[in-house]
């Protein structure tokens, strides 16, 4: 069971964001995410705030993070999706939100209150914060007391905080966040990332004392693995 809803900090009359349309119903993907979910559920109660990073853009961080968040929510956990990729905020566009949306950057810079940036989603048990407008200093905002307090506050109200981050192979943001999170998953793009790139990301996380929970092997071509279905059935591997 998730934490009691009456202690939630999300106001009930808030706008509901449609994220269900972004979730795949591909059986293999759903099953792979379920096994990732099981690994997380059995990682211990101290693993609550989980970041997802990768070497580069387009490796699948946002896709895997959202799929994982929804999967945990479907399991009865109360889940919060926190988009911290303030440099490349794709979610308002993907959920087809027409108006300017308040998000993390507005909150961290003092331009919005917490309740103004929280949203419900059409996935029961799943709430979220968008990244907000691109600020001039994303890394500085993520290193602030305000961000630290936000993560601590959310952990009191939700079972899991799934934190989408920018690629660590490109910018330092996730390394800054890692020390505030309980663990980080590295999403590896099986079709694009080199061993050297992956090692560099791993080393950067280790330097921050961030706990690496494991690796999600994404965009795996089933053809390469001798599978029957061919490339259309890319799947998420679990760690
Ligand atoms: N396993 C997968 N199979 C096929 N397409 C995928 C997979 N994972 C991600 N994608 C696609 O790759 C693109 C980049 O994914 P995204 O999650 O936005 O990456 P990132 O957040 O790392 O920049 C999106 O169009 C997404 O739909
Ligand atoms: Mg992303």
* Count of helical regions: 9
Q: What is the helix/strand order?
A: EHEHEHHHEEHHEHEHE
Assembly type: single chain
Distance between the termini: 25 Å
Sheet having the most strands? 8 strands, mixed
According to CATH, the fold-level topology is Rossmann fold
Count of separate structural domains: 1
Radius of gyration, in angstroms, nearest whole number = 17 Å
3D architecture notes:
The protein has 239 residues and is of the alpha/beta class. It has one domain (5-233): Rossmann fold (3-Layer(aba) Sandwich), CATH 3.40.50. 33% of the residues lie in helices and 16% in strands. It is built from nine helices and eight strands. The chain has helices at residues 27-41, 61-74, 91-94, 104-108, 114-117, 138-142, 145-157, 173-178, 195-207; strands spanning 16-17, 49-54, 79-83, 119-121, 126-129, 160-164, 183-189, 212-218. The protein has an eight-stranded mixed β-sheet with strand order 1-4-5-3-6-2-7-8, sandwiched between helices. Magnesium ion (MG) binds at residues 61-62, 85, 90, 164.
């Amino acid at each position: 069971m998730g934490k009691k809803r009456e202690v939630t900090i999300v106001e009930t009359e808030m706008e509901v964001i449609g994220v269900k349309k972004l979730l795949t119903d591909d059986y293999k993907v759903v099953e792979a995410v379920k096994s990732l979910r099981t690994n997380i559920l059995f990682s211990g109660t101290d693993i609550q705030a989980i970041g997802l990073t990768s070497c580069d853009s387009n490796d699948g961080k946002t896709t895997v993070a959202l799929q994982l968040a929804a999967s945990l929510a479907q399991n009865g956990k109360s889940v919060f999706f926190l988009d911290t990729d303030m440099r490349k905020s794709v979610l308002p566009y993907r959920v087809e939100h027409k108006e300017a949306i308040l998000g993390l950057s507005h909150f961290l810079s003092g331009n919005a209150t917490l309740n103004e940036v929280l949203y419900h989603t059409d996935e029961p048990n799943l709430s979220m914060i968008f990244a907000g407008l691109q600020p001039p200093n994303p890394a500085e905002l993520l290193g602030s007391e305000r961000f630290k307090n936000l993560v601590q506050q959310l952990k009191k109200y939700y079972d899991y905080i799934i934190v989408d981050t920018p690629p660590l192979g490109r910018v330092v943001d996730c390394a800054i966040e890692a020390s505030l999170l309980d663990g980080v998953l590295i999403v590896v793009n099986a079709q694009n990332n080199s061993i050297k790139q992956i090692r560099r990301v791993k080393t950067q996380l280790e330097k921050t004392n961030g706990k690496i929970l494991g690796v999600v092997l994404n965009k795996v071509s089933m053809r390469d693995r001798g599978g029957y279905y061919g490339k259309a059935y890319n799947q998420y591997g679990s760690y």
